[in-house]
Amino acid sequence: xxxxxxxxxxxxxxxxxxxxxxxxxxxxxxMKQMGAVRxxxxxxxxxxxxxxxxxxxxxxxxxxxxxxxxxxxxxxxWADYSxxxxxxxxxxxxVPLVGHFLLGEKVPPLHWVGIMIxxxxxxxxxxxxxxxxxxx
Amino acid sequence: xxxxxxxxxxITVLANTGGEISVTRAMKDIGEVKDFRVAALLTVFKRAFxxxxxxxxxxxxxxxxxxxxxLLSWADVSFVIPAxxxxxxxxxxxxxxxxxxxxxPARWAGIALVSVGVALVCAG
Lengths: 136, 124
Known about the structure:
heterodimer, A: mainly alpha, 73% helix, B: mainly alpha, 0% strand
């Protein structure tokens, strides 16, 4: 399989955003199931640790974030860091949208403004060549 | 903003950016991944973890993570998290001067907008 630079960069950016958003959402679901964390003794801490690592959402979150890291590394083997980092900021668009539409979280007006500004910024970056450090 | 907050914010941003730039260096040394079969990808990751850059990256990202935790223990979350959005701009400078990437005005404009947008989304 030998894809040209732009399509394979786009595929990996989609995977990066997918895995890192779902990872954060899974972790947040897992932690919310536990309720507010209160640690007063070493015993509390040990109990919290056991509770965290026996939660399925947490493991799904960890798996998603590991896949995110793998995709992030792979895409950086050919694409500019200054392309990948801002283009991955779509996570900040997806997480509030999922929070709003699927998890019933309230998104304040200022956040919607931020989301629109990120869309424009990501769009601008995505229009630049993914790699500027070597000849294609 | 106290001097201590400013110092830890600078450490958080610089360590995170430095860590990601080191990951980039490690991966650029390996070269473009062209074979996406699982066995080939595992070889790529094995090579990456043999690279000194990767371990520098892990060290820097750990410093960034703990410095952020420390910062959050006294500073206001609604200030700290949006302020870390400056990572995108610092990352742009690092990419230009440390990795030799060519940042066009369009890319800089995109980076600036992403920073402002992320700061707004993260603001309380």
